[in-house]
Design brief:
The structure is a single chain. This protein has two helices and three strands, in the order E-H-E-H-E. By secondary structure, the chain is of the alpha+beta class. The chain has one domain: Ribosomal protein L30/L7 (Ribosomal Protein L30, Chain: A), CATH 3.30.1390. A three-stranded antiparallel beta sheet has the order 2-1-3, with no helix packed on it. The two termini are 22 Å apart. The relative contact order is 0.36.
């Protein structure tokens, strides 16, 4: 029997600080998240991969959780 479809979680990620002066890995992580400008906001699925990326650059971004139905 199929499982009930759970509400998919999304993360709203906003770049709040410039990556200038930080390592190339941090800059690459910001780009991989889809962020290009300060105060730009993107929505990503809440996955372990994205969470790991956010932990690496948590000092540069603001994260809000959203539930999508």
């Amino acid at each position: 029997m199929p499982k009930k479809k759970e509400a998919e979680k999304k993360l709203r990620i906003t770049l709040v600080k410039s990556a200038i002066g930080y390592s190339e890995k941090h800059k690459a992580t910001i780009r991989a998240l889809g962020l290009h400008r300060i105060r730009q906001t993107v929505e990503q699925a809440d996955t372990p991969v994205i969470r790991g990326m956010l932990m690496k650059v948590n000092h540069l971004v603001k994260v809000e959780e959203q539930e999508v139905q």
